[in-house]
Amino acid sequence: MTASIIDGKIIAAELRGRVAAEVARVKSEHGVTPGLAVVLVGSDPASEVYVRSKHKQTQEAGMASFEHKLPADVAQADLIALVQKLNTDPTVHGILVQLPLPKGLDTDAVVNAIDPAKDVDGLHPTNAGRLASGMPALSPCTPLGCIILTKSVHKSLEGMNAIVIGRSNLVGRPLVQLLLNENATVTIAHSKSRDLAKLCAQADLVYAAVGRPEMVRGDWIKPGATVIDVGINRLPGAEGKTRLVGDVAYQEALKTAGAITPVPGGVGQMTVACLLVNTLRAACAIHKLAAPAV
Ligand SMILES: Nc1nc(=O)c2c([nH]1)NC[C@@H]1CN(c3ccc(C(=O)N[C@@H](CCC(=O)O)C(=O)O)cc3)C=[N+]21
Ligand SMILES: [Mg+2]
Questions:
Q1: Which residue intervals define the domain Tetrahydrofolate dehydrogenase/cyclohydrolase catalytic in the entry (predicted)?
Q2: pLDDT for 81-131, tens place per residue?
Q3: In a 10 Å sphere around its CB, with 0-12 CB exposed, 13-18 middle and 19+ buried, how is residue 123 labelled?
Q4: What is the position in ligand 1's atom list of the atom closest to the CA of 46?
Q5: Is 245 in the pocket of ligand 1 (CB under 6 A)?
Q6: Does domain 32-115 have CATH number 3.60.21.10?
Q7: Would the CATH topology of 32-115 be identical to that of 141-269?
Q8: Ligand 1 site-directed mutation target among 7, 40, 48, 50, most atoms within 8 Å of CB
């Protein structure tokens, strides 16, 4: 038996189409154009790639896209001043500060400066706290994407055993909360967990988000389980190129899993699509419109 492949490209494109339709409706019915501001500090090549694809997809969905590039040696106060300006800019409904920030900048202080109503990354403690309390919140895009991909396989996650490997603020922790909202039973594992293979073997749903290339092996996976690979690791490939691999040993896991996401073409695609969803939701909330149908 070989696993079916969960096609993030197709699922993300379909989601972006629904966002675009809602954006068109909100524009024509209410005269509101949702706007996303992305702040990139320094010049990490991988970050440049993500920011470019965010810009393109935002515009394709009919939303306004604002890019702000700052030098790696920008003063903390100047970065915060930009965030504050975006907070009060009525054309901006979503603010994303690309992470990680260059050394010397205080990430917590920058994230705290974002208006929680415009925090489309769901990183502000107000949104993280609301999510953890079961209240409506802007939730981080990658975990939202993971849930949508899982639901493309399972209509309901109720009572399923899920394991989340990784506990970052951007992925692992909020993903745990979203899974709890779906009534899954959740195990939270991380780099210090003992006997990860055994914990994994009990899971119907495996979420690998540790940032270690191919750490999750095929024989850890319960036969038929759904595997969502959040990792994006750049390894040296042939002819001086880089090669992207996930946190799961994909070829091995294909043999035991029931369904699995590829890297690239899995979770990464959904992250950007969900960013558009969050920007649309933020714009509707800010303008006191009904929540959009996506
Ligand atoms: N404040 C903040 N929010 C983020 O959401 C955030 C961030 N900082 N910093 C970096 C990570 C990473 N991230 C990705 C977005 C899209 C792809 C993506 O489009 N991946 C494609 C192609 C990848 C490629 O070819 O390089 C795929 O997996 O198919 C991947 C990763 C968002 N992040
Ligand atoms: Mg991917």
A1: 6-121
A2: 999 999 999 999 999 999 999 999 999 999 999 999 999 999 999 999 999
A3: buried
A4: 26
A5: no
A6: no
A7: yes
A8: 50
